[in-house]
Amino acid sequence: MNASKRRVNLLAYLILIVGSILILFPLYITICTTFKTQAESASSFFTLPKSLYLGNYQQILSHPTLKFAYGNTIYITVFSLLAELLVMPPMSFAISRGMHHRGKLFKALYFFFLLGIFLPFQVRMMPLMKLLGDLSMLNPTGMVLLYLAHATCESMFLYVGYLESVSTSLEEAAYIDGASTVQTFYQIILPLMRPILATVMIREGLAIWNDYMLPLICLNRSNTMWTLTLFQYNFQSEFNVDYNQAFSCLVVASLPVIVLYIVMQKQIIGGLTNGAVKE
Amino acid sequence: MTTSSASHKRRSHTMRKEQYLTYLLMTLPGFVLYCVFLILPILMGIYYSLTDWTGIGTNFNFVGIENYIKVLTNDRRFIQALQFNLKYSVFLVAGIVIIGFILALLLNRELKGRTFFRTLYFMPAVLSMITVGLVFKQIYFYVLPKIGQALNISVLADNVIARKETAIYGILFVHLWQGLALPTLLFLAGLQTIPQDMYEAASIDGANAWHQFRTITVPYMMPTLSVVLILAVKQGLNVFDYVSSMTKGSYNTTSIAMLIYQNAFERNRFSYSIAQAVLIGLLIALISFIQIRYTNGKKVD
Fold first, then answer.
1. Tens digits of per-residue pLDDT, B125-162?
2. N or C terminus of chain B with fewer C-beta within 10 Å?
3. How far is B165 from chain A (nearest CA, A)?
4. Would you tell me which residues 204-223 of chain B have a C-beta closer than 8 angstroms to some C-beta of chain A?
């Protein structure tokens, strides 16, 4: 029994280590290459860099559009999250409690919003672009509105699911004490929603920061509107032959997310799982 | 007595009204945005799919279901893309479910260094698909051929994603490299909800490991499996970022999403591309529906 368990553990280690090598090897190559000159990469691709050559990073960091890409990505992500924080929790609260009080309208609204999860993106991709163009909103601010609109399906679903487990007795007591619905929500319910707020913010934050398709459709016309994903893509096409530069670009663009992951891995892992398991 | 009950009644009545109005106001901004940016574009899309609009200019004619007929009867590219997506999805779903489940079982064991392995295995999930795609594009181009030549493996000696026979597998590998992280995490979370005393009781009854796996682990994992399946199928049928970053659709790797993008933006066949999107949308909806029905039927109570 014990011997067989040890054998299984050994096999488990073996598989996990092979997997780790498969995950680490591309990252190792990427990072090593960024610290080498082209000549050094050509002669020794797989070894650690002989010295920390910073030329690649200097060139990327002085690239004129990088600051726009960073600025736009931060702007879009931060304001989308803030807007979501402002709009989605009260809306989900209203729908959840509206349904709780047997409001038929709110039940209908719930399913109406839920429908959005199943509507495929490609059908609305082209009309969406045209619509934004007509509203002259093919810019980062337009993107904020789009992400906010998209949050009405999935985030609402997660919030409402969570609110179902929050007892209504606390708010009933507040109403009897004469508190308004708005006061009750902000003073009593919102603080109780903290775990699900973290989950939704982490999921949405990562999805928006890493999104490629929507920026490609809406923001690719002008390089001052590029996000980091567009910057990486366009930079790669521009410097296709110089892989030292190309890899440095990818590292520079991914660094914030990687640092964030290392610092907050517990919260990020929890945030990613909590939502999906409830679905 | 009567006055107090009446005033209480009136108060609760006015409160309900205030509540109702507040609820409506709280829902309003989201409702407007949802209608403008999700419902309206869908309706516009369906309307344009019935016209011959190229996406440029304002002149177009209403042509009925002509676009749909053309897609279904006379479009080899569409059929090829569909074949690509179906093949891709089958491999992706199988890979995600089988490998993801095995990894979750391994990461759930009490091993030394478990936290390290978990941290490492979930890291790909936080990177953007485009970054991962571009990293591997370079690796396929510069690194893998060197390894192939050194080890004398002929399949790897040339760029894997620049050949018709192997490009799809090159993309699939990258998708799994990154796409396994979240399903593994979900399986792991699912495994942790299984009450441990079930296994102990089964051991006492003399059930072997395989029997325990079949009668305890699998039934408990059905809800998680359902979520993972739906996510994986959706990813497989919608794959775009990896294709766009690695092959741009060449070497027989044009996915449906890539084809729709090309038709709309590069070939100026706007209305036609939407007809394709509507058909794929229906297919995805149908598959999701069947899947939800099927997995719900198998859930443990």
1. 889 888 899 889 888 888 888 888 888 887 777 888 88
2. C
3. 23
4. none
